[in-house]
Amino acid sequence: MRALRILLIVVVILGGLFVVADRVAVYFAEDEAASKLKTTENLASTPDVSIKGFPFLTQVASGELDDVEVGIKDYEADTGNSGGSGPSTIRIDDLKAHMKGVTFSGDYSSATADNATGTATIAYDELLKAAKSQPTQVITGVTAQVVGLSDGGNGKIRSDVKISVAGHSQTYPVLSTVTVEGDDVKVHADNLPKLVVDLAESRIRSITDFQQTIDELPGGVKLDSVQAAKNGVEITVKGSNVRLAG
Q: Which of 177, 194, 218, 246 has the fewest CB atoms inside 10 Å of its own CB, making it the most exposed?
């Protein structure tokens, strides 16, 4: 019985040491991966990297991590508009990506996920940069501009459209649908003021309807869906063979 007790004590101690060693190793790996990701994606701040699953060391031995989560607070995405009148980048907030089947090199200099899904938010003030926020003539003596975007409820965007005629102006709330087509977030007005429709619907839609390209997201993930929400347009992303670093 004494030998059995000693054996059990040894097993418990070794098990505890293994858990400690495993957690130390995973913290080190998370820090290294975060540092590499910051450099690879040219991020302003270090992202959060969380490696899920236990034990970590057995995953390392197999050369593949089951589940990795990455969080980037602020990401400047390319709009593909480096030489145009619109912004060349757009800020994406709280990008959270969930990676599955992550293979990596021994020094964590490169890592690739079999697939990834994620969420993020584009604030309304950022999306407004893609709209025509300067007064634009739609017919002689009549100008229009989008002066604000906000949550319209039920997954819609509210676009505040200011119509000016002969020195007088009025702002109309217009509900719009937001969709994804390829790399583009598109905003399309569902309803327009009757006065505007009677005068020049096609011209006013050049003001109310707009799109914003979002290109070169981290690791090569792509836009999947969008929906208007309280603080901005919520987007989902997905991808396969996503490069986390290297």
A: 194
Which residues lie below 8 Å from residue 209, measured CB to CB, with a gap of 6+? 176, 186, 187, 188, 189
Residue ranges making up the domain that contains 58? 2-119
List 50's β-bridge partners, or say none.
69
- Using a pLDDT cut of 90, give the percent of the chain over it: 32
Give bridge partners of residue 103 from the DSSP assignment.
64, 112
Same domain, 41 and 112: yes
User: Is this structure's pTM higher than 0.90?
Assistant: no
In a domain, 95, yes or no: yes
Cα separation, 91 vs 62, whole angstroms: 37
Q: Which residues pair with 6 in a beta bridge?
A: none
Beta bridge mates, 20: none
Say if strands 89-104 and 168-181 run parallel, antiparallel, or are unpaired: unpaired
Residue 77 contacts by C-beta under 8 Å, 6 or more apart in sequence?
89, 90, 91, 92, 214, 215, 216, 217
Pair (15, 108) in one structural domain = yes
Residue 15 lies in a domain: yes
Residue type present at position 227: Q
- Do 131 and 207 lie in one domain? The reply is yes
d(CA 29, CA 12): 26
Cis peptide before 173 (omega within 30 of 0): no
Give residues with Cβ within 8 angstroms of 78, minimum separation 6: 88, 89, 214, 215, 216
* pLDDT for res 229: 94
pLDDT tens by residue, 102-159: 887 766 667 788 999 999 999 999 999 888 778 888 888 888 889 999 999 999 999 9
Task: Compute φ and ψ for 89, nearest 5 degrees.
Answer: -135, 160
